[in-house]
Amino acid sequence: MRVKLKGINKVTTKLASGERATYHYAWKGGPRLPGKPGDPEFIAAYNSAVQQKVVHSKDSLQAILNQYQDTPKWTGLAERTRRDYVKHIQKIEERFGDFPIGALTDRRARAEFLSWRDEMALKSRRQADYVFATFASILAWAYDRGLTDANPCERPGKLYRAKRSESIWTHIDEAAFLKTAPERLRLAYLMAVWTGQRQGDLLRLTWSAYDGTHIRLRQNKTQRRVVIPVATPLRTALDAMEKSETAETILTTIHGTSWTSLGFSASWRKAVARAKITGLTFHDLRGTAVTRLAIAGCSEAEIATITGHSMKDVGAILDEHYLSRDSELAESAIKKLEMFESRDKTPK
């Protein structure tokens, strides 16, 4: 007789190969279980995970981590974001699951947490920032609900600082990619750089969202509605693209099916490598779009209207990552100054 295990979270996903795979987790946000349901190793791993979860008292950080994953804030996260958070939470659980909630008010707690972040940064500063930001967000939620009297992780600053050369697709990069990439990925590039939208939103975008002049969509992560006028280069590519008979999405595979996130990412990496481009990702096209709009003279409000960022986020992107040393922006500024000075000194 098969033992019925309570709370198992079953997740089925489509692999890059097109095949479907099913994974089992001890609970939502819990550890992944090896083998198949009913296998001895599967049951043993489940019992071990549950036992470790129970060991932590209600006065430990584990209790806060568990409660957070039962909240509307958690369930409201995009699936991709939730998967990333699970990985971060597991790291927090392993290190601080039994940390007493009452000790969060001790000034030494912040030092201990920051030391842990420094340890993670030895492998990856960016990843250390991501995990610590998740930790800070969860403690902020707990503080707002009276579950703790302090958040020793708030405002830690960042360890990772992206260099502009690592984050911006130049026109040289663009030409190299468009020259070698297949048509369907060229369209994906144009959609990203002319709309500033996230990969997931573009992969889900259907033909019904495009009326020949505008693209209308609701962003999955923020639920913001954006209406984007379609520029001529993108409109030309969209109008020339043959619609799939089997998929409603604009972006499709060579077989005419909708992309999976993993499948698209794998094909994108191959196309980037073929173009001999290094250090740039599809996500960087969102920042590239912000940068190009700014260089073209758009205000932060205009940029936010197109990309769906908040104005605060647009300002932060431009200030911290992209425009601090942009030579094109500097040249544009000097030309404007020259024009102003010339006009001001013209004999009347």
* CATH superfamily (homologous) name of the largest domain: Intergrase catalytic core
Total discrete domains: 3
CATH hierarchy, class of the largest domain: Mainly Alpha
Q: Radius of gyration from the CA trace? A: 24 Å
Catalogue the unreliable spans.
none
* Beta strand count: 4
CATH architecture of the largest domain: Orthogonal Bundle
- How is the biggest beta sheet arranged? 2 strands, antiparallel
Tally of contiguous helical segments: 16
Strand content: 5-15%
> Which topology of the largest domain does CATH recognise?
hpI Integrase, Chain A
- What is the terminal separation in angstroms? 99 Å
**Principal-axes shape call:** globular
Succession of helices and strands:
EEHHHHHHHHHHEEHHHHHH
User: Spatial order of the strands in the main sheet?
Assistant: 1-2
What's the mean pLDDT score?
Answer: 85
Helical residues, percent? 40-55%
Q: What class, by secondary structure content?
A: mainly alpha
